[in-house]
Write a structure and sequence with these properties.
The protein has nine helices and five strands. With about 300 residues, the protein is α/β, with parallel strands linked by helices. It has two domains: about 35 residues; about 180 residues, HAD superfamily/HAD-like (Rossmann fold). Helix 7 links the parallel strand 2 and strand 3. The longest helix has about 60 residues.
Length: about 300
Amino acid sequence: MSSFTHPVDSGESEQSLLSRRQSEMGSQYAVESGIFMSSFTATVFVAALATTGLLILTLLIALTVMLKSCQSTNSGILEQVKKINQHDCCNFYILHAELNNLEVNELPLKCKLQAHQYSKRQYLKDLNTSIWFVEDYFGRLTPDDDGLDIILLDADDMLSLTGNFSRISSLDKNEQFEDIKHQASILLVRMHIQLRASGWSLFLFTRDASKHRNTRESTLTSFGCIGWASLLMRYDDEIQMEDWEYLSRKRLQLHNKGFRILGLISSSLDAFRGPSLGRRSFKLPNLQYYMNWRMPTQPN
């Protein structure tokens, strides 16, 4: 009896084993096809995503603020560079105009305003610095005993600061510019006295005709310029000459007479053209030129 029932049990066992295997395979499939996550883990995961999003948003806001700040800073820098470039450009314009003796209408309006401001704010500083260079240079030298070492000084720099000189601009009649001219004359006289005290022989020159000699000498003396060796002026045959040509001719005549020009001092560029300029040249700032660019009204 028992032998009859054994195959049946064996078949059932096989079916049971097969069923368990199918059940395990199904279970494995269910696990592999999805991710089981508890509610706590899901909460942590969502919080992490929210935190990451918040950090990214904060970073974007920070970058936006930084970008706007950089744009504002760069805009200020660019504006400053623009002003500097305009200032440098006007300096070249003004130098070119002075070199070529241009008229007022040949300078851009923005540069006329800059030239006007220069005469009020910077001219006296530049003049004082230029005179310091002159005094320092000649203070370290000693003229020879033969009396042939000379310094050429532009007397028109002093004369142009007086109200009765023909080259003075008719525009400069306010008190501020009168004070500037007065202070400039003090500096020029100081330079004159210092050079004379160091033993230098001073040859003054002017572009004016010799028929005005007495008047010019009297004006220079009233300012305190005394003790010069000579005052060079135009003769009749030099009246029609260009200023630079006349001045060059005077220097050449001095050179041919054996004089040694140790220095040439002037605010006008025409004095530095031609031969026989001497050992050292000193260009002073030209107040008369800048004052001719004054504007009738002040900018707002």
